[in-house]
Design goal:
mainly alpha, two-stranded antiparallel sheet
Length: 507
């Protein structure tokens, strides 16, 4: 949603929700808790009408936006063979983040705690809405169902982030305000999280969200966004047969299409274009400009790339690896659209160009984060077909080739006179599809989850580590870099200490 909808403006109720945003409200004594509130609203008496419920729903979206722009990329891209970092010997204050890249992070790493805490913050806000929405006055009952569907979609997204990153996590589906009850909670099995907290919410969202919104509400969750997330959930569990009808529905809906020019997808001049199914919204007009790309530029680039803001000494994060650059075929237009090459003297540093549209002034830009887009849906549909039908189906070739055509590349097909483009077997087609998916969706926070699904994350990351250690001398003091590749990240140490949770294996 863009800011003219007041999407990102918080009401007084948020002050109350922030108090209760964790798993519990700390006890402060009966006298303190029984005082008459100084403000007009509390988390108990706020929920009276449709406007207040809508404002409350609006207050959840920024959490998801900040997750994608702030932390998700650190685990989904930075920790993969897609990106690494530019070593700055003059500023070693960022080593804790760098350790995620070469798998030497520990449970104290703030990235893990940030994703955990922000997810439960979003869940807490959603729970307050869901327990109160039935008693609020709505002018149209349809709007009540839509607001509930939005809330449940967002809650499911937060639980998805928890499940895919940490595995077993506590399920909390109602406001939890008792300290003793919170401390007694255990981590619930991840399959239970999917079955009780994620899938039912997304099924409700699919049934009740609109296919599209008017211009004033652009950016809100839609039926297609909920279908995409549920398809992602099924993919993460290997349930391709359950995902395929969802993906077919998206493709057949007529709501989405491919942009002709790849770089236009991300250009703020074509904001929320036909290829965007769901995006984290940014807008400088509401003092909510995006600046996530600034930390990914070479720290020594000054204003040469931005024509405005200058990256700090801890920039140079999330820079494309040699391996991802090699993954692009000769003539692939997506390379120059996605990767930049900054030359400083005799040194060249790659950087992610995909989201860079100068000038980048103080306050950031209007560049959104594409969470789900149509090309992803097409590639997932093709993968689901391959996984359920086998063989070498024509429609899978068609999907790959329409994306290759946009990228300026020749088609692949059985019997192609060019041996590099001749795909004769199911195994070769799977490999071609995975290669296409990697370059098409590079730097959009999909790679880690893809490697998990393929079952190749350990193999790929250890091979990547061998190359990185050969070309990055600063890794010499770390012989164990890229050796302990865990499929799940660490439960934050504060959660282990505070609640007695068992730590994930390998941490």
């Amino acid at each position: 949603m863009k800011p003219n909808t007041n999407m990102i403006r918080h009401n007084q109720y948020l002050l109350c929700l922030l108090i209760a945003a964790g798993l519990f409200i700390s006890s402060c004594g009966d006298d303190y808790l029984n005082r008459v509130p100084f403000s007009n609203y509390t988390s108990e008496n706020y929920w009276e009408n449709e406007v207040q419920i809508t404002t409350a729903v609006n207050g959840i979206y920024p959490i998801l936006r900040n997750q994608f722009a702030g932390d998700i990329w650190k685990l989904a891209e930075f920790a993969t063979d897609n990106t690494t970092f530019q070593f700055n010997p003059a500023d070693r204050g960022g080593q804790i983040l760098e350790e995620i890249d070469y798998f030497l992070a520990n449970a104290d790493n703030g990235v893990f705690a940030s994703i955990w805490n922000s997810s439960y913050n979003g869940i807490a806000r959603a729970n307050f809405i869901l327990i109160n929405i039935e008693d609020a006055a709505f002018t149209e009952e349809e709007n009540r169902a839509i607001r509930e569907a939005e809330t449940r979609f967002l809650r499911a997204f937060f639980y998805y982030h928890l499940a895919i990153h940490f595995g077993d996590v506590p399920i909390v589906l109602e406001p939890l305000t008792d300290e003793e009850e919170a401390i007694a909670r255990e981590r619930d099995p991840v399959e239970q999280v999917y079955a009780e907290a994620i899938i039912p919410d997304l099924e409700f969202a699919i049934d009740n969200l609109p296919a599209d919104w008017n211009a004033a509400n652009t950016g809100r969750a839609t039926r297609g966004a909920a279908q995409m997330l549920l398809a992602k959930v099924h993919f993460s569990r290997g349930d391709y047969a359950l995902a395929l009808p969802l993906l077919n529905s998206i493709v057949e809906s007529g709501e989405y299409g491919l942009m002709q020019n790849y770089r236009d997808i991300f250009d703020p001049a074509f904001d929320n274009n036909q290829e965007i199914i769901f995006a984290a919204q940014f807008a400088t007009a509401a003092n909510q400009g995006s600046g996530f790309m600034l930390g990914w530029l070479p720290f020594n680039s000054g204003a040469d790339i931005t024509d405005g803001l200058i990256p700090g000494s801890r920039a140079g994060l999330n820079i494309p690896t040699r391996d991802i650059v090699r993954a692009y075929e000769d003539g692939d237009r997506r390379l120059n659209a996605s990767v930049g090459f900054y030359v400083d003297g005799g040194d060249t540093t790659t950087y992610i160009r995909k989201y860079v549209y100068p000038p980048i002034p103080t306050g950031g830009t209007d560049v959104d984060w594409p969470i789900f887009r149509y090309a992803d849906a097409l590639l997932m549909q093709a993968e689901a077909i391959l996984e359920t039908e086998g063989g070498i189906p024509d429609n899978v070739f068609q999907t790959i080739n329409v994306l290759r055509s946009r990228a300026g590349l020749p088609a692949i097909f059985p019997g192609n006179p060019n041996p590099d483009l001749d795909v004769q077997t199911n195994e070769a087609l799977i490999e071609a599809l995975r290669r296409e998916r990697r370059v098409e969706l590079a730097f959009e926070s999909h790679r880690w989850y893809d490697l998990l699904r393929y079952g190749t994350v350990e193999e790929v990351m250890r091979a990547h580590g061998e190359e990185q250690k050969a070309i990055q001398d600063f890794l010499n003091p770390f012989p164990n870099a890229y050796t302990d590749i865990n499929r799940l990240w660490a439960i934050p140490s504060n959660e282990i200490i505070g609640f007695g949770y068992k730590q994930n294996e390998g941490w």
